[in-house]
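Z., the sequence and structure:
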Amino acid sequence: HDTSGIQSATLLKAIESGVHVVDVALASLSGLTSQPNFNVLAEALRNTPHATNFNIDSLNAFSNYWETVREYYYPFESGLMAGTAEVYKHEIPGGQYSNLKPQAISLGLADRMDDIKKAYEEVNLLFGDIVKVTPSSKVVGDLAMFMVTNKLTKEDLFTRGETLSFPESVKGMLRGDLGQPDGGWPKELQRIVLKDEQPYTDLPNAHLPPVDFEKEFETFQKQYDNYQGFSDFLSWKFYPKVFDEYYRFRKQYGDVSSLPTVNFFYGMKPNEEILVDIGTGKTLLIRLLYVAAETDDNGNRAVFFRLNGQTRSVEVKDRKAQVKKVTNPKASGADQIGAPLQGRLSKVFVKGGEAVKKNTPLFTIEAMKMETTITAPRDLTVKQVSLSEGSMVETDDLVVSVG
């Protein structure tokens, strides 16, 4: 990636040294967290022994097309406006840098990017300055977010680590799920994070349960109608939660890829008319007429539109109508256990009156694919579970009261 702004120089020196293939991106999609500029590099090599056969007019035409497309996706930009030398310190990969902003927003850390980058640098060194590529880079980012959310320093990880519930990705990596770096993982950090769990040093796939592809493929086909392909099955097997979310979304809304990009992201304006191709020879002509000014008693708003010349209406839930922010009690004291980060309470493992041992899982918080399972800090008895599964929580919201 070109986060530093001088990656093109690296490629030119590599080419001079005999490298035959380099990674680049079309001009309008290049630079910063993306790859160096394809068009510029091709022109820079013109009239040299390393000249390419690429047609610059064709490259520029492709670049102009994608420049227009990129404008539709502006809300997803990384926020980086220029190359930065900070990358030599924090070493955040370009692809991950683009994801940090939405992840920070989901955790309520939108204004803490500088702190997150500093924590990322510290975590990377704690792990041993590891090679950072998906998924190891995500693990570094998860722990950095965890530290910033809970106002932890790197020293706190060692002095308070026995009572901290670390993100699942961090535990998995130090357990051995991603393999071993040269020299192994830092022993003290590994012991603190894993607590009673024993790490392993053999191949990670030796610890995976065997897969009966024929049997599980049949189960998949029964569970997900309209998805009968083996590639869909593999997607589900690798990313079950992501596939399930995709399946439920598509079952509710259909194939939204047929919608124009600008309307998918930003909706339609009154009297705007669009064409939607839903199949060979099947085109819908849709015109938005107007949206009712008031919501009904259920918070729905009537939307009137014209479909192929016929006026229709549909009731749509107005998510902004009568929005009431639910404030949960905060955890205080040793007899109350709260959420360590903002997110969704995805799983509760205990119930009132239950006696549990130290390090027993109590509940799991999920935010932007980062899962953190909170465990019992000591042998205790659960007095009350204050929130139910699916509840949205903020940092320190009370979840479990113990005795």
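The mean pLDDT is 93. The chain is about 35% helix and 15% strand.

Let me know what you think.
H.
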